[in-house]
Amino acid sequence: MANSRVKYNRVLLKLSGESFKGKKDFGIDPAAIEYVASQIKKVYDLGIEIAVVVGGGNIMRGSEAEAAGMERATADYAGMLATVINALHLQEALERRHSLEVRTQSAISIQQVAEPYIRRRAIRHLEKGRIVLFASGTGNPFMTTDTAAALRAIEIEAKVLLMAKNNVDGVYGSDPNLDPNATKIEFISHREALEKRLGVMDATALSLCMDNDLPIIVFDLLTRSNLENIILGEQIGSMVGVGG
Questions:
Q1: In 3D, which of 136, 123, 120 has the Cα closest to residue 53?
Q2: Which domain holds residue 99?
Q3: Model-level pTM greater than 0.85?
Q4: Nearest 5°: CA angle at 185, between 181 and 186?
Q5: Which among 12, 84, 91, 140 could disulfide-bond with 153, CB atoms 3.0 to 4.6 Å apart, if both were Cys?
Q6: How many domains does the chain have?
C-alpha cells in the first residue's frame, strides 16, 4: 500500500544506457547497476507501482551503427537486444541484492529470457507489487527508447514519466555545457518544449505525452534520493506539461 505522503502512485522511469556504464566509456559497470537498483528500491519501499524502460546506448546505438555502415533497421534491432542485456542486469540486481519481484517484458520475441510485452499482464504485475522492466523499445526500428517510454507510460496509465539524466538536473534554455549563462527551466508546457527544441526527448515521444496529458519530470539520477524525493512531491528537476 502506498505511503500517504506520495504524490504519484504509479510511475514509469526511463533509464538511458549511460545509467549502466558508470565511469566506463561503454559497457556495464556493476557499481552503476547497484546504484540504480538501490534508488529504485527506495521508491518501491514507499509502496508505489514502478515500471522501467531501459535504453541500450552503453552497448549499441542504432544511429551510430548506421553511420558506420550498418543498415538502419538491422542496427536498431541490435540496439533492442542491447536493452535486453541491460534489463537482465538490472533485474538481477533488484532480485538478488534487494529481494524484489521483477518481471522483464520484451517488445520483440525472446521468451527464453523475458516475457512478451502484454499490456494487461504488465498492469497486473504492477498491481501485485512487482517491478516491471520494459526492454526492446517499442519493438520497431526507427523508434527511440524515449518513444517507448512515452508509449508504455500511457499504456499502463502511469501518473508521470520520470526522465532520468546523468549529471543534468533539468531542462535548460541552452546547453549548460556550452553556455555558462544557460538558465534552468522549472516548468514548461509540452508544446513550448517542442517548439523550442529543448532536447527533453525526441519529438515523437514528446508529442505522445502532449496528446495524452502525461507530465514529464527531467531530473539528475546521480543525485542520491532525487528519485525518492520526487515521489514524495518535492520540486526537483524540471516539470514538462501538466501537473506542476
A1: 136
A2: 10-234
A3: yes
A4: 140
A5: 12
A6: 1
